[in-house]
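Hey, I'm writing a tutorial for new members on how sequence and structure tokens pair up, and I'd like a real worked example in the thread rather than a made-up one. If someone can provide the structure for the chain below, I'll link this post from the tutorial.
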Amino acid sequence: MSASRMPDSPMEGTARKRAIIRAAQRLFARHGYARTTIRMISREAQVAFGLVAHHFGNKENVFLAAGAALIDEVLAFIRARSPEVATGAKALECFVGLYFTFTQEHRDIFPTLIRCSPFSDDNPGLDRQRIGRKFQELIAEIESLVRRGQADGSLMVDADPHAMALFVYAAMVGAVRTVFLAGFADATFFDAARSFILRAAGAREDI
């Protein structure tokens, strides 16, 4: 009789879970929610079908976990690359630019974040409030930059900082959806979108 398989160590279990998340991000980006199956994810991740169910339970949980993990990755990417700048306006400019850079460097997975965004009307039956709470981390980061800019005078808007943060993020999402879903591929588009966002936020040209 062959020896029974030893259970995964915590490190192996974490690695397998990460592999499932990354596989799900690629497949949801490529095929969308409806056309992606748990079996496809298990094959892409090279793990047993039951392991996906063990970690996540069902496809909706995998989808939302894949989106949440992408938000963590976006924020880590931006924070690691953000330079020290003198003003809130410059910090906001860097944030928006780095967000767009991340989307371009991760074209194979980023559409998953578009599909599960609270701004998306895809799959209306999904628990948007659940993923919306995770998206608030991105919006809170933007709001902190808006508040900084208003405090140091580099952003000259009287708008509520939270409302302005929502506008900035919605404009970023709209720009990315235009590129990824509408196929608008002009290389200058993201630069123009960033300039528009900064002007709308009241960035002073002399700062």
